[in-house]
Amino acid sequence: MKFNNSDKIGEIVTRFPKAADVFQKYNIDYCCGGKDSLESAAKNLAIDAQSIILELDSYFLKSSNNKSTDWTQASFQDLINQILQAHHAYLHTNLSSISDLTKTILRAHGANHPELVKVYQDFNTLKTELEVHLIKEETVQYPAIEKYLMTLDLEDLKTVIDVIAELENEHTVAGDLLKNLRTATNNYQVPDDGCNTYRHAYFKLEELEKNTFTHIHLENNILFPRLKELL
Ligand SMILES: [Fe+2]
Ligand SMILES: [Fe+2]
Fold it and tell me: Ligand 2 (ion): which residues have CB within 5 A?
């Protein structure tokens, strides 16, 4: 057996990135809640941990042919490039257009679906939070990490480590807003009277959730611990 009750959620996704698909299906938080064991995460959601383990094991066996990058072993530069290109760039491209979609469906369907007010409000709070967060990472944290990689000066590393707690707190705020959105949209289920724009809006919101959870996982569970280990 590949996975166990005592394995931490974040470590499972670090070892087997596709486990994120299984955790997303069960609403198990693998980014900010990554330090929880599989057993306690399942217990909190009243799910049988053993059935998740079986599902992870069989998904792992099926996926073992397609190799994915082991970010715990990749160079810092490759890990940083992955975060910036696959996740920061995704948000820069999509935040404004998804915001427009939440406004369009609120205007067209808000009278029949009052939950769209909360979707609009929470998404736009999330958008603002993430925009400020990306600016902080791109103008302060990532340049500081790149400076340390050039100088290997301990003082430069301490500057990097000092910002981590603040960034992790911001990840928790973003993760909570994403969980609120999943609840408000009833797991992104489009109602029977929903139009194509409604479907597209929920598809993009769910895509953004997955992209952002993976983004936070790479920072909280891989990049930041690897930097702390250097100290
Ligand atoms: Fe980031
Ligand atoms: Fe971040």
Answer: 219
